[in-house]
Write a structure and sequence with these properties.
The protein is an alpha/beta fold. Helices cover 35% and strands 14% of the residues.
């Protein structure tokens, strides 16, 4: 096999490119922005000026900066581009049209799949950084046509999560945030007994998915389930075994 250099490419072997918000929080293992979360190499690219406030506020003016960063990732050889905020869903369809690789910016993209694998009477619970901002516009952008089958539980009033994730104080107590996430998950399922699976919208929440599942005993989807799934499709591995 003959390999050819790609002009301007500085390294190789990073299948997934990850667009990051312009934030200052501790990125612990399990966080989308922590490289040790993955069993494969990833490439990160921060979008200057794309703050948490602009993401939650669904600011459309950030799109050009987001597209520039995404194209830089593609130029460096990634095979698919994701993000680290579920509210990036606002830009999903437009960016997917303009890039030559698969785009899956928001963890919310998993909702139609989740609904399809549950019974028709079942619902999906969504734990989000800000329940007030998760509305019809974002859901439509990820293909959700039946919002009645969702039960949304926001974390904006949880003090430890809010201080570290929204106020960006620079400190994090994982045990206290885990307790808040578990409480929110239990509250979501208590509100509607039809909830049979949970989705964690925020990229900061996957570190607490195992504790949540242990508490509520239902499937839990998050950014990492989505990223691992797409990686398995864009970087196929040969099977080795015997018969």
């Amino acid at each position: 096999m003959i390999h050819h250099a790609r002009k301007g490419q500085a390294s190789s072997g990073e299948g997934i490119g990850i667009l990051l918000l312009d934030t200052s929080v501790p990125f612990i293992p399990g966080d989308v922005a922590n490289a040790t979360t993955y069993d494969f190499p990833v490439r990160f690219r921060k979008i200057e000026g794309f703050t948490v406030a602009r993401a939650i506020g669904k600011d459309p003016t950030i799109y050009d900066a987001l597209k520039t960063a995404a194209r830089e990732l593609v130029d460096q050889g990634v095979r698919a581009v994701t993000g680290d905020c579920g509210f990036m869903a606002l830009h999903q369809q437009r960016l997917a049209r303009e890039l030559a690789v698969p785009v899956f910016l928001s963890s919310l993209l998993q909702i139609p799949f989740m609904l399809s694998i549950l019974g028709e009477e079942s619902k999906v619970g969504v734990l989000t950084a800000d329940g007030r901002s998760l509305g019809e516009t974002l859901l439509a952008a990820v293909g959700v046509t039946d919002a009645d089958r969702l039960v949304v539980e926001g974390l904006e009033a949880q003090p430890h999560f809010h201080r570290f994730a929204i106020q960006e104080t620079g400190t994090l107590d994982p045990d206290k945030v885990a307790a808040e996430v578990v409480a929110a998950g239990r509250q979501c399922m208590a509100r509607d007994k039809a909830v049979k699976a949970l989705l964690l919208e925020c990229s900061l929440l996957p570190p607490y998915a195992a504790a949540l599942q242990a508490a509520v005993q239902v499937p839990v989807f998050d950014y990492i389930t989505m990223i691992n799934f797409v990686f398995s499709a864009v970087v196929k591995q040969p099977y080795v075994g015997f018969m």
